[in-house]
Design goal:
The longest helix is centred in the first third of the chain and has 21 residues. Helices cover about 15% and strands about 50% of the residues. It starts with a helix and ends with a strand. With about 190 residues, it is mainly β. The chain has an eight-stranded antiparallel β-barrel with strand order 1-2-3-4-5-7-8-10. A three-stranded antiparallel beta sheet has the order 11-12-13, with no helix packed on it. It has a domain of about 120 residues: Quinohemoprotein amine dehydrogenase alpha subunit, domain 2 (Lipocalin, Beta Barrel). It is built from two helices and 14 strands; from the N terminus they run αββββββββββαββββ. Keywords: Signal.
Length: about 190
């Protein structure tokens, strides 16, 4: 019995160890879009995650923005047995409601990690609640460039750290405040914001 059990256990151990070795680390800056289903304050918001992964646990901050309307939330989460990432926003760290009668949604996410077009992609549904009650749910798609040897061959760096702690990522910049995009959005009406 030991002869048949030992190879099976060894195979299981090696498979698990190899999967863990090649599982991408979620740490870093993720950029993308938060979509809100029909009836929300807007159908899409800019969304950024700044994540730190420690084993099967992740923590960090979420930044959501629609023009001058923006917020920064603390988040944390874990990898489920099925491989998805369950992430929850727990606190609003700072925000600007841009003079509107809105309440921020504190969101839960169920995200899957995939590779697409040379990028790591996190996507999946979100749902949440605000002081007005349940928020109209939606989905998110976030991307992070995969750190591969091609960057070295082309002499490019996916993240460029500047003096004084400013981090440039594509055309987004984090400098002790929310990432700001160059294009503008307009917001009207009241309700719960993504």
């Amino acid at each position: 019995m030991l002869r048949t059990l030992l190879p099976a256990l060894l195979s299981l151990f090696l498979t698990t160890a190899l999967q863990a070795q090649f599982e991408p680390d979620l740490s870093g800056i993720w950029t993308g879009t938060l979509y809100q289903n029909e009836g929300g304050i807007a159908d899409r918001f800019d969304l950024y995650f700044d994540l730190e992964q420690i084993g099967p646990v992740v923590k960090g901050k979420a930044y959501v923005q629609l023009g001058d309307l923006h917020a920064e939330m603390r988040l944390s989460g874990y990898q489920t047995g099925s491989g998805s990432w369950r992430i929850t926003e727990s606190e609003i760290l700072r925000n600007n409601k841009a003079g509107l009668e809105v309440s921020w949604c504190m969101k839960d996410y169920e995200l899957r990690l995939a590779y697409r077009d040379g990028n790591l992609v996190l996507n999946g549904p979100w749902w949440g609640s605000s002081e007005y009650g349940r928020c109209i749910p939606g989905s998110i798609t976030l991307r992070r460039e995969a750190k591969v040897a091609s960057f070295l061959l082309r002499g490019e760096h996916p993240v460029d750290i500047q003096p004084h702690g400013q981090i440039h990522y594509g055309y987004y910049a984090l400098h002790g405040r929310l990432p700001i995009r160059s294009d503008e959005h307009t917001v009207t009406g009241a309700g719960a914001a993504g």
